[in-house]
Specification:
CATH topology: Rossmann fold
Radius of gyration: 17 Å
Structural class: alpha/beta
Distance between the termini: 41 Å
Length: about 260
């Protein structure tokens, strides 16, 4: 599949999830489920607290992540946050609470359906310091040196040109700004069967890159203080994405951190 085909498949799948139709040929998606109790359980596995889950309106948490970038972002009142692949707004709305009314959160997503859902969710709780913009995370609709923090949750693995995503993250960060990303990394070469399964692109398996490649891309983009920390405890969560396929033997959830030099 070429880049355009991958993007269209991902857009159709996640647009369908937002609209409640689950359209598209790429399935399963990371952690997707129709049960609210299952979504909450999965989110607690990812590291979200009961308080965080209660703070967002119904429909904001679609269970599409693989970790909790909020836990490492150390967001402060007044900061500007950018969320790459903001989906229905879950992490954006949580970030908005942390940065407060003097801060700002910008979510970017390439699906109209997700943007509509995110805007509805923000309106439900009166989150006036959050905005959602249509765009691809390889070409962010955001000015240089805007953000103090760039978040993302299990989205970059879906993008064919990951190096470009990290270049864009570096561009929009202010000097001294930081990355706080949860994503999946490849921990062992995929079996031929799994590597050939196009449905596992949206399943956050086929597109996962090895940690050493991510480190190299971040360094090439200009980041310092780079850390990619795989989370072995994510095995049970990842196994549920494609039950019985053994995908947990090939990918793991990871925390990805980096800083744009202050100078």
């Amino acid at each position: 599949m070429d880049t355009a085909q991958v993007k269209e498949m991902v857009r159709a799948r996640y647009g369908g999830l937002a609209a409640g139709t689950s359209l598209g040929s790429c399935a399963p998606s990371c952690c997707d489920s129709s049960s609210a109790s299952t979504l909450d359980r999965q989110s607690r596995q990812m590291g979200y607290s009961a308080e965080e889950l209660a703070a967002v309106p119904d429909g904001a948490n679609l269970g599409l992540g693989c970790g909790n970038p909020q836990a490492i972002a150390a967001m402060k009142p007044g900061e500007v946050v950018v969320d790459l692949g903001s989906g229905a707004g879950f992490d954006c709305l949580l970030a908005a609470r942390q940065v407060g009314p003097k801060g700002r959160v910008i979510g970017v997503d390439m699906t109209h359906e997700m943007l509509a859902k995110a805007r509805q969710n923000a309106a439900k709780i009166g989150a006036g310091n959050v905005e959602f913009r249509l765009g691809e995370i390889e070409h962010l609709p955001i000015a240089d040196n805007t953000a103090d923090v760039v978040l993302s949750n299990c989205v970059i693995n879906l993008v064919p040109d990951k190096a470009q995503v990290f270049r864009e993250a570096f561009r929009v960060l202010k000097p001294g700004g930081r990355l706080a990303i949860s994503d999946v990394v490849n921990t062992a070469p995929l079996s031929p069967e799994l590597a050939a399964d196009r449905t596992l692109i949206c399943g956050c398996v086929v597109g996962a890159a090895p940690a050493q490649k991510i480190v190299a891309w971040l360094a090439e983009a200009g980041f310092t203080g780079i850390r990619v920390t795989a989370m072995p405890e994510s095995r049970d969560l990842i196994a549920a994405w494609a039950p019985g396929r053994g995908v947990e033997n090939y990918v793991a959830s990871a925390i990805i951190e980096g800083w744009k030099p202050a100078g």
